[in-house]
Design brief:
By secondary structure, this protein is α/β, with parallel strands linked by helices. The protein contains twelve helices and 17 strands. The strands form two sheets. Strands 1, 11, 12, 13, 14, 15, 16 and 17 form an eight-stranded mixed sheet that branches. It binds pyridoxal-5'-phosphate. Pyridoxal-5'-phosphate binds next to helix 9.
Length: about 400
């Protein structure tokens, strides 16, 4: 895959030595810019916008998110708890399969609980009934697999053959919607308007006659709405049309779009040497701090990368031979102690870090590129590693 970063933005002015290393630095101004764009889509279309916590759950910005969006969506019990502890507004929870022991709390916390199949809804009918008897109010949703692939990579395609994500629309019958308040569809990954339009065009005729009794339709995430080339007006028109035609409340669950180009990961060169290639070891680990670099895989853009000069193969401090971030150009050979930064690391990195090899977790800092105010929100010490083990 390719990085979707549009460039460093205000981070060209950020002095990398102001934070400990490694450290995520998130620009509140950039987050607000993204949130304002999403709010505008919500205001113009009538759709409700929910932050997908799985992508970006830097909860020190929860109040900021609440100023713009209608709520959040969670992937299970712990994100639902985080949502209710820190975030505001509507909470939708979807998990491919729930555990009976988690479900009562999820039902209590959430406004909507989305199930992966009519079977699961049936299996948990007693728990749902008991929660309602206790006075809890929540909607029940069903995730559909639209069976229309648009994702560029199979790993990120919930419509791939044998997918476990969502109930295949070809199997859907009206009786499956008994007790269901809304439908959920998520089949995009970092995509523009056109793939959504095609999915809807293929799905709508298959839902004919089934949308009438429903309260809402959730079109999931993967919409790269805050990218400069996104066809926002067309999205607004589509969402308005769906809402009006079927009398449903439409929801979107963008994650990445909220934090797109809003954060960097700062690190430090620890050593360099030559081994057929120029090699540099940093305190940023692909496997521990940016696992999508290996998993997707993709090559993150580096701040101030030089076109001419020396190319260095940059990798992390772990034992994994494949802990390689990529090959990057430097105007002059970097020296130990030199700071570097990778762009667009606010989403799907901070939420995925781990301490393999006892590699320290990056600190988290909040910067305001308008005022230049910098706050070190969180630093992790040895106990963060120790206390996940026993
Ligand atoms: C069900 C669901 N909703 C929302 C999202 C958020 O997607 P994105 O961060 O790409 O916008 C995802 C991502 O995998 C998802 O699985």
């Amino acid at each position: 895959m390719e990085t979707k970063s549009a460039g460093p933005g205000a981070f060209v002015h950020f002095d990398l030595s102001r934070v400990p290393s490694p450290c995520f630095v998130v620009d509140e101004v950039a987050v607000r810019r993204n949130l304002a764009m999403l709010k505008d889509v919500g205001d113009r279309s009538g759709a409700q916008m929910l932050l997908a916590l799985k992508a970006f759950s830097m909860w020190s910005l929860a109040d900021v998110v609440g100023e713009y969006l209608d709520g959040v969506c969670a992937s299970g019990l712990w994100e639902a708890r985080l949502a209710r502890e820190h975030y505001h507004g509507h909470l939708t929870t979807y998990c491919p399969a729930y555990k009976a022991q988690d479900l009562p709390e999820i039902l209590r916390l959430s406004d909507s609980v989305i199930f992966n199949s009519p079977d699961q809804i049936g299996r948990f009918a007693d728990l749902i009934k008991a929660a309602r008897a206790r006075g809890e109010t929540f909607d029940i949703g069903l995730r559909l697999n639209p069976e229309h692939s648009e994702a560029e990579v199979a790993k990120y395609d919930p419509c791939q053959r044998g997918s476990r994500l969502g109930f295949p629309v070809s199997q859907l019958r009206s009786e499956h919607l008994d007790g269901v308040d809304g439908l959920h569809i998520h089949a995009l990954c970092e995509q523009g308007f056109e793939p959504l339009q095609r999915i809807w065009a293929s799905l709508e005729p298959r839902l004919h006659g089934l949308l009438g009794g429903l309260k809402w339709l959730n079109l999931g995430g993967g919409h790269h709405i805050t990218r400069a080339d996104y066809r926002t007006d067309d999205l607004v028109a589509l969402l308005r049309d769906i809402a009006q035609r079927y009398g449903v409340q439409v929801y979107l669950e963008p994650g990445e779009a909220i934090a797109l180009d809003a954060g960097i990961l700062v690190g430090e060169i620890l050593d360099t040497f030559e081994n057929g290639l120029n090699v540099a070891i940093t305190d940023i680990s692909a496997t521990c701090h940016m696992p999508d670099v290996i998993e997707a895989p993709y090559r993150p853009a580096m701040l101030d990368e030089a076109e001419d000069g020396v190319t260095m193969r940059i990798g992390g401090p772990s034992c994994l031979a494949g802990d390689i971030i990529g090959d990057y150009g430097f105007a002059v050979r970097p020296q130990p102690g030199q700071r570097i930064a990778f762009l667009d690391q606010a989403h799907y990195s901070m939420v995925k870090t781990n301490t393999f090899n006892g590699v320290p977790l990056p600190a988290i800092a909040l910067w305001n590129s308008d005022t230049d105010a910098l706050r070190l929100v969180r630093q992790f010490d040895y106990t963060a590693f120790r206390d996940r083990l026993s």
